[in-house]
Design brief:
This protein has nine helices and ten strands. Helices cover 37% and strands 17% of the residues. The longest helix has 17 residues. The strands form two sheets. It has a seven-stranded mixed β-sheet with strand order 6-2-1-7-8-10-9. With 288 residues, the chain is of the alpha/beta class. Bound molecules: S-adenosylmethionine. S-adenosylmethionine (SAM) binds next to loops.
Length: 288
């Protein structure tokens, strides 16, 4: 018998489980902008529908209208769940690896060579997602300064999304997350765990002394006083409009002293955003 080829309906033509009109999309979009600074493009309609539908199901609600009412009633925990559902957490170990090379060659190696173990070094991973970024910083430190535990060096890892932050803190990764990582690194910093036929990798518990995880919304007042020698603010400001970015970097610049470093994501720039930094390399900025 000839196989039947099922036709795949266009998103618009697909029958939706919940009615989702323009007013729903605009209201949710406005709310997410207020809460997180994330500017969802028109093209994110399907993404919003898909992600928020999961919240409706979890809450046994039958319409987006009912969900909007719940959010408007100021239900704090649902507002957090709503933001968590819509923020994109994509990340990887040693993503944009030139930043880690720069950290090693221009910051950590000179410190080690000068034996400046009393210097206070603070590094902030400001949108750390599931932890790959701060653990990559930690591995870079451990590889460059083997006796780091005797140094005054600390990483602060923060994110808006409390669920992803809990995953980051747990530090356990499926085998595919480590694909491509140098086997020496895997052997040194991860413990292999076999459970129910699945293999996962647990980051070394030693890094608990190096990294502090904390929930921080970049749209709110930043609770730390600084100074922060290096800030990773990567692949998060793409969601913010220029005015929000300007306001954020005015606050971030106050946490850094001249010569301190700021790393942005590959498609991000401080052009027309801040003149308190100069561009010194590919998405690498120095505080003026
Ligand atoms: C794409 S991930 C970037 C992860 C990592 N920095 C990297 O470059 O691989 C973006 C992260 O930004 C977080 N985020 C979004 N809005 C935020 C805000 N207003 N404050 C803090 N974090 C936010 C999201 O929860 C998400 O984990």
């Amino acid at each position: 018998m000839k196989p039947q080829i099922a036709s795949i309906p266009e998103p618009e033509a697909r029958t939706r489980e919940f009615e989702f009109n323009d007013a729903d999309f605009q209201a949710l979009r406005t709310l997410v902008k207020q809460m997180t600074g994330i500017n969802l493009a028109e093209s994110k309609r399907e993404l919003v529908y898909g992600r928020v539908s999961r919240r409706l199901r979890a809450l046994n609600l039958t319409s987006f209208g009912a969900y909007r009412q719940l959010l408007q009633s100021g239900d704090g925990s649902e507002l957090v769940a709503f933001c968590n559902a819509l923020t994109t957490n994509l990340t990887a170990f040693f993503r944009e690896s030139h930043h880690f090379d720069y950290l090693r060659d221009e910051v950590l190696t000179p410190l080690r060579e000068a034996g400046r173990r009393r210097d206070r070094i603070r590094i902030w991973s400001s949108a750390c997602s599931s932890g790959e970024e701060p653990y990559s910083i930690a591995m870079t430190i451990a590889e460059t300064i083997p006796d780091w535990a005797q140094w005054d060096i600390k990483i602060l890892a923060t994110d808006l999304d409390s669920d992803i932050l809990a995953r980051a803190q747990r530090g356990r990764y499926a085998a595919d997350r480590l694909r491509g990582m140098d086997p020496g690194r895997v052997g040194k910093f991860f413990k292999e765990i076999k459970e129910g036929g699945e293999t996962s990798y647990q980051i070394t518990p030693e890094f608990e002394r190096l990294i502090t995880f904390k929930q921080i919304n970049l749209m709110h007042d930043l609770p730390m006083t600084g100074p922060l020698n290096v800030i990773f603010c990567r692949n998060v400001i793409i969601y913010f409009d220029k005015e929000t970015q300007r306001e954020l970097f005015t606050r971030i610049a106050r946490l850094q002293r001249p010569s301190h470093l700021l790393f942005l994501g590959h498609s991000e720039t401080l052009f027309k955003v801040s003149d308190e930094y100069s561009l010194i390399g590919k998405t690498i900025y120095r505080r003026c």
